[in-house]
């Protein structure tokens, strides 16, 4: 049995290192996001599930969720999916066009696009439009 380290803890194979209560809540968020990948759960929904900042940090470290911004979480592969979908838009594109294409709420698009910019996947232009970096 090969153990691995995560966040200064030793994790058994197949385990994500999350306490059962947090694991169950994270799996619910993942189910919700599988139906609508960019419809980040609201702060109320996260609170209802018992996912505070500390729990969300643990979920991100375990690779189960990706924190895009404060209180905004998506699935870990959301960046790749977003770039693929945004690449289908006429380039350059507006934040509004991105929000519509991704089906993300107004509060979710700017932090997601900022993260894609920082990762070098998109580039913000002087007129506030963006383009995919190829």
Automatic annotation (TrEMBL):
Residues 114-134 have a biased composition (Basic and acidic residues). One of its GO terms (biological process) is selenocysteine incorporation. InterPro entries: SelB_WHD4 (IPR015191), WH-like_DNA-bd_sf (IPR036388), WH_DNA-bd_sf (IPR036390). It comes from the Bacteria. Keywords: Elongation factor, Protein biosynthesis. Residues 94-134 are annotated as: Disordered. GO terms for molecular function: GTP binding; RNA binding; translation elongation factor activity. GO terms for cellular component: cytoplasm. Pfam families: WHD_3rd_SelB (PF09107). Residues 86-130 form the Elongation factor SelB fourth winged-helix domain. This is Selenocysteine-specific elongation factor. It comes from Rhodococcus rhodochrous J45.
